[in-house]
Amino acid sequence: MKNKFLFYLALVLCLLPNFNQAQVSFSLSPSLCQGGTCTVTALTGSISPLTYNWSSTPSGAVFSSFSTATTAINFPTAGNFTINLGVVYNTGFQLAVNSISIFAITNLTLSPTATVLCPGETCTITAVGALSYLWTTTSFSGSIAQPSISGGSGIYCVKAYYGGSCMDSSRCIGIGAAPCTGMKELVSSGSHFKIYPNPASDKFYISSENTTLANVEIADAYGKVIFDADKRFLKEEEIEIDLSNFPTGIYFVKIKGKDGTNQSGRLIKK
What we know:
Blueprint: H1 2-15, E1 31-33, E2 37-41, E3 51-57, E4 62-63, E5 70-74, E6 79-89, E7 92-103, E8 109-112, E9 116-117, E10 123-128, E11 132-137, E12 148-151, E13 154-163, E14 166-177, E15 193-196, E16 203-208, E17 213-220, E18 225-229, E19 238-242, E20 249-257, E21 262-269
Parallel strand pairs: 1-7, 9-14
Antiparallel strand pairs: 2-5, 3-6, 4-5, 6-7, 8-10, 10-12, 11-13, 13-14, 15-16, 16-19, 17-18, 17-20, 20-21
């Protein structure tokens, strides 16, 4: 009876885990930017493992080695990943896991309502593509934490935050200043002419309600004439003006009717 008891006791002790065996672990940053790489090392204590096996859930993480104690892990896609480490010893198997969040880095776009301003004018610049933004500018001191910023001519720079420690602080845009001398907007009484759509991205139309168009002149914000037409449109009541090959900004149009009426206005090409 005594021998049978000793046999079962020895069997139980063999089946119990070896508590002298070190617990497997590894350290992992809680977050990283998309495309980033981190290096991890298995900690196994004083007992040497037979094999290592690194993997990720879901798949998508790229390991420099699946079967060594130290490996570099690259994350080409965004998402939440679990990194798994399996270690085989002479006496058994242990598993360690850690989680990491990979934040997406998207294309940041800056969209101004105008690229050139006359004295006293302002524009709005909107940033799209990140989670939050912090603007600084030469137009005034301090910073503004919002997607859009308004102001006059100057240099505007934005820090874009994507989550965790991921950010892009290298994006700036310049808003130019033009004298706009002699280009005040003068609208004659009766509004004989219409300019539409305004603003537009490529083509504008000018129509006459009470008279025939005699002359149309368009100048940029610096006063340089870029379009001048007269005799071709003497018999037309509507003309098309294509500015698709010109940069975005403010343009000034002077219209003259055959009956002597005159009108000036602004075109905004976006």
